[in-house]
Batch of 4 targets.
Target 1
Amino acid sequence: GSVIVDANSPTLSSVAAADGTYYVGQNIDITVTWSETVTKTDTPTLTLSNGATATYNSGDGSAAFVFRYTVAEGDTASADLSVSSYSGTITDTAGNAAAAASGDLGSVIVDGDAPDFVSVAASDGSYKEDDNIDITVTWDEAVTVTDTPTLTLSNGATATYQSGDGSAAFV
């Protein structure tokens, strides 16, 4: 019979993530692909250019591992996220260590600063039943509306969103 010796380490083929802007609480799935099937013996992580860490999520026994990074409040913003390195043990079936994982992820933007409430205001005055009271809620950055937001007032009544989607002030 013949003996085959595999002395070649798996080389890095690519690192990739879906282009987009990611906000607090959103996941960025990063796919790292090597030239051959690899396995892990612990929980590998990726070090990202903004100082955050992506943790192994899936792919053991394949050529592509998926790592997940969930953007958290206070994470350093990044206009061009990239992978710096990985930690952990990733090898091919012969035990050769996988090549370093690094590279640009494309147009992946991280916004780790959730909008902060700034103020709420209404015009002073006397109001009677069925009068509209415009209440302006202000944030420190532009925000987007989903569904129909409401405010619960101190008298138990509610105020319903009217306008301001995509701006820093809602009425």
Target 2
Amino acid sequence: RRRVDLFQKTFLAFARLKDTVFDMDEDRPDVFWSFYLPWAMWIYDQKMQKEKAVRGRTDQLYVHGVNGPLGVGKSASAEILKVILGQLLKESGEMVATMSIDDLRLTGDERAKLGLREFPFVGAPGTHDVGLGETIIRMFRSSNETSELAVPRFLKHTGERSPEWTMVRGK
């Protein structure tokens, strides 16, 4: 029953994402039902188990990573999971934020200074600001529900980090 309710509350948002986040010819409710819903529910259950282990504290940062080769849909999957997890966390007032390794890419000027002239859409080793990623994770860890945090965004169509970062609420 939980899965059916979640499907009903989130499938339309998934269907809208297909047009903006990733290239898909149809809505594919079968993929949403059999892949994304169970995955999101598993992440949520893992988070709840972690909270139980720390005596119900909901102020803990829970990080779930998605990895894979270039072009397999990691960013699209993260956006879909964000919709589903956002619905699951709605009642507790918690939120979901996403950040991609691409969001930590060095700017074109920074890459040029390092002599890195690779194709602009491929995140070759050495082209990411690891320190920035560590700083953002530390900021999330030390945040609270009133914190406003800025998360960088990489614009794939320009090959550059956006000058406008996304503002998200802390944990």
Target 3
Amino acid sequence: VLVFQRNKVHRFIFSGNPIAPFTRDEIQTGRGCVGPDAATVSGSDAFFLAEDGFYRMTFSGQVTPIGAGKVNQWFFDRCNTRDMALTIARSDPKETRVYWKFRSNASDEGIYDEEIGFDWRLNLWYRVRDLPALDVFDMTTQDWVLEDFDELYATLEDIPGSFDDAIWQGG
């Protein structure tokens, strides 16, 4: 487990010891996350916004700047620095994309009016459109098994699509 603070990051590893079940290592000093929701996990890595830009961190603690020379300056020019700690990070559970929603200098009070995305497989940044939005959250759906269909459909013929369709997989 990675725990982000404003200026450091700790890693907690299960030790199996009943007296001290976790060991704690400080794996990053001098850099942390700007706010409680400005970090997310995608794949096996964490992605976070620090006071000096965007980063990717492996569980071992290796930090890679992903926004330097790409979007950091654009972000800091646009972001309302008073509200930067309110930036919200999220990840797409089915893709290799992470997103940060933030309030710009032009934002009406309380409105998240800007969002940028990063595809870590392609190493590509992009701007997300169709804003403003009042809130953002991660959401997944449950997976379905054959017995669950009895609750919604009277017969097998009433069930739309095939049983191996992605709509029944959850996620």
Target 4
Amino acid sequence: NGVSPPDAEAIFSHGQGLFNEGKLIEAIEDFDDVIRSNRYHSRVYMYRGEARRELGNLPGAVTDLRTAVDMGRSTEWAHQAYTLLGNCLLEDGNNDDAIEHLKHAMVLERDYQPAISILADAYYARGLDRSEKGRFGEAIEDFDAALALNPNHTDAYEKKGIAQHKLEDNM
């Protein structure tokens, strides 16, 4: 980008600004510079991972977000890293892993709304998957978990009713 702030923290701040402006490719370039200069700057992995996700690079995003989680477990923003990783895993169809990371985010920050919302969606997605595989009892449990987190999740109500009907038909 031609302008390179003198230290890793300044480059990181510049990259955050680019990220917030939606200039994701330029932000990633700044984040790459920070990583090259300071491998232990875990928060930069969180931002680069989210930028990669927004650009459609889920494998790169998951790798970065796993690094952010591994390096930043005791930081004040760890719940955000777990939430972003859970969201990527959900988008990638890895519902079980997504649920585990999102539950961990909620352990760290109990009322963190993004984690609660995404976790409800992850339970819903896993419920759909289980329902498609004929595991209706487990699907109902997942739909119930989604509804406990988000009582307004109308799709979960609908799919739970269908799963209950199919479960009764199979008995």
